[in-house]
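Input/output pair, single chain:
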Amino acid sequence: MLIIGRMLLGFGVGFTYQATPVYIAETSPARFRGAFIVLFQLFNGIGVLMANFANVGANHIRWGWRLSLGLAAAPALVVFLGALFNPDTPSSLVQRGRLEEARAALQRIRGSDVDVKTEMHEIIQAVEHAQKNEDGAFRRLLKREYRPHLVMAVAIPAFMQLTGVIIVAFFSPLLFRTVGFGSDGALIGAVLLGSVNLGSTIVSSFTVDYYGRKVLFMAGGILMIVTQVAVAWIMGTQVNPNGDIPMSKGYAQIVLVLVCIYTAGYGSSWGPLSWIVPGEIFPVEIRSAAQGLSIAVSLGCTFIQTQTFLVMLCTLKYATFLYYAGWMIVMTVFVAVFLPETKGIPLESMSAVWMKHWYWRRFVSDGKVIVIHPV
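Output:
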């Protein structure tokens, strides 16, 4: 029963992860789009933090595990009821030929005193271009002109998982026990990491539309590389190879601080940006397929890592953190070289950023006439 319930929960999470970033991106003003999508990651962080508090509180209750599992129904109910009151996005309505409803939805989203004629015209143009191609969304995604979108749909979620943050989140109590914290101390450490992640995500919501995506990607990447290497060095020199002697309290506290700094780097960069960038770069004709692929890659990598991390930690020991630091170097360089800046670009004009990129412009069709209106 627990396995079946967990599978059903996985379906629900997958549907939500696929739909929510796209919905927010399609309804947000371009100049605030990053901040609005960060809110998705922010409330994810709030959920993780609340779950950690629930685990700490239920730790000393005999049937506490049932309480921890049952409490997950509360936010699910809120999501279900909230979805009943959300309007369809203008792009979705235009795709189904309901132009007046789309115009009314756009007016409702932007405000009654805002002229939406230009934005509505751009949405209609984008949808009309998409409907000229009779291929399905997944088949289109494999075409040459969508090569940059396909690469980003795979690379960004895969790289996000290879930061190692999911492993830190899942196994932080085990990690903290490994470096010398007791059972309660390990759970409190997990709560602390959740709090740091939440705080850094809030910071990101105020900076992502000011400094742009690439700056945060690279700054967070550098911070995580340094802290991963530092944790690897401490664990390599201070943890007994047999694991029978705990790390000294001073070094254990340093590890806790470093992991908190690492979490802050993730929470202000790869955490929210791995939702923002895929949510905004895909054109309407491949948006559903590309976002679905992105989420599938992310959840697939999560599954693989959770099944292999303990074996990796026991085999590689401290070098596990060097493994993730190495991937962080690769992904930081990748972002610096291959990801164009998308700050303030309307979704309907996003194709132009690929046309201007030094590498991706060789793939993107120059037959599309698209005007950028930075906001």
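Residues 367-375 have pLDDT under 50 and may be disordered. The first helix runs from residue 2 to 27.
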